[in-house]
Each structure stands twice: as C-alpha cells, then as structure tokens.
Design goal:
mainly alpha; 96 residues; single chain
C-alpha cells in the first residue's frame, strides 16, 4: 500500500487498511489520504471506510477545482466544519 498523506503526518508506514483503522492518528487522516492519493483503488475498501470515503467525497465536491488531474470522487454536497477546512488547507499546502 503506497500511502502519501498518513506517513507524512504520522511518521509511520502502514501495510494495510486494517493497520490504518487500528491507529487513531492514522484513522483521522484517512479521508485526506483518499482525497490526495488516487493511486490506491479505494473502491475495494469502501465497505470498511464508508465514513472516511464520504468525507473525502464531500471535500472533493467543495474543492474539486483543485483536483483537476486526479481520479474523481462521488459528488456529495454538504457543508464542511471550519476546523476541518483548516486541516485540509494544511495538508494541501504540504502537497503542492
């Protein structure tokens, strides 16, 4: 599993989705990993990561102009909490 976001912010490597789900710090960043890392086929993990996938899709819908070259996520129109937007901005700045 070739992760980008989670190892950059936790300092750890993860070999499986189950390892990510067991680590609360990694789990908090899973939505961002889905959003920023389209090299992984997240669809095959969709049953295990429903909430994180949905959150990534909400961010994608709100900021899709920033993700023109990536694999699209489903569009889900919902408002995002201000604290979550600040976290998104931090992660986005790290990867641009």
């Amino acid at each position: 599993m070739k992760l980008k976001v989670i190892p950059a912010f936790t300092g750890k490597e993860y070999l499986s989705i189950d390892e990510i789900l067991e680590d609360k710090n990694a789990k908090k960043l899973l939505w961002a990993e889905i959003l920023f890392n389209d090299e992984i086929d997240w669809e095959k993990y969709k049953d295990k990561i429903k909430e994180d996938y949905k959150k990534a899709a909400i961010f994608y819908t709100n900021f899709k102009y920033l993700f023109k070259n990536g694999k699209p996520l489903p569009e889900i129109i919902e408002k995002i909490d201000e604290k979550e937007i600040r976290r998104f901005e931090e992660i986005y700045r790290f990867f641009i």
